[in-house]
TrEMBL record:
EC number annotated for this UniProt entry: 3.4.21.-
Domain Peptidase S49 stretches: 130-265
CDD domains linked: S49_Sppa_N_C
Superkingdom of source: Bacteria
Family named by the database record: Belongs to the peptidase S49 family.
Species name: Candidatus Berkiella aquae
Pfam assignment, any one: Peptidase_S49
Upper classification of the organism: Bacteria, Pseudomonadati, Pseudomonadota, Gammaproteobacteria, Candidatus Berkiellales
GO process terms (BP): proteolysis
Entry's transmembrane regions: 35-53
Gene3D superfamilies: 2-enoyl-CoA Hydratase, Chain A, domain 1 (3.90.226.10), 6.20.330.10
Signal peptide: none
GO MF, one annotated term: ATP-dependent peptidase activity
Name of the molecule in the record: Putative signal peptide peptidase SppA
Amino acid sequence: MQDQVEKSPQWERDVLEKALTASVTEHRRSRRWSIFFKLIILAYVIFLTTAWYQGKAKPVLKDHVALIDVIGTIGQGQEVDADQVATSLHRAFNEPKVKGIILRINSPGGTPVQSAYIYDELKRQRALHPDKKVYAVAVDICASGAYYVAAGADQIYANKSSIIGSIGVLMPGFGFVDIMKKVGVEQRSMSAGKNKLFMDPFSPVKPEQVEFTQALLDDVHSHFINAVKEGRGSRLKPNNEVFTGLFWTGDKALEMGLIDGIGSSGFVAREVIGVNEVIDYTTSHSLLDRLASRIGSSFSKQLSSELGISSYSLR
């Protein structure tokens, strides 16, 4: 009995010590997580602030050339968005210290509508500011919708090995009718409206739908051709292959009148415009803008898929 009494205080102390130790450990763990989450929030705020400031115009003190990148696929929600390029052009044309504008293009093309938007904005800004020249400079590739954009510039330059041209329109598609017959699959889609299943890949091709589609593509192609002819004017040499969708190297494109010279962005700034200072005017959308655009693009693609509508592009 005496031994139990003597052991009791020790037991209580051990339990109390363990409880306090556990409490301290839990407190430290909670503090660590609190610090971790605060750091995450701080990093997120810094990221948003940096992204916001990058989209703001920066004060300019001396004459310079405005550089605007057109890099990647042209389309809403893609690497190159017409609204984004238009914003960049507006800033550049309205800055008094800008003595020339360079569109640095490295793109295989994109949608005809977005390409036409940029082309039209180029023509509009040039009409409003006739004292400022725009120079398109091709890097690796300036084809299809990208060349549509370049045609709106005053002059076009490229490397001798750049790929230039591809003035055509493409609507990709597939047909699975024969495969379905072999594996015993039957098409059972239903629609209201005789053309609702337009160019359905699981049904035999209908000549009248092919004819309609070709007429549509030819119509869009004519818009592309007219824009190139308007932009290039008499510099475009007579050639039966120019508007067939073929493409050429920079030196061959120079012979054909598709471009005006061989040179890089730095060459155009120094030797053509005569200004060494180059400032990047490429507009970057905010994180929320890009997220909203992606959501809108995904919704559009899903809707097109549900309606059975194929997209087409300048290729």
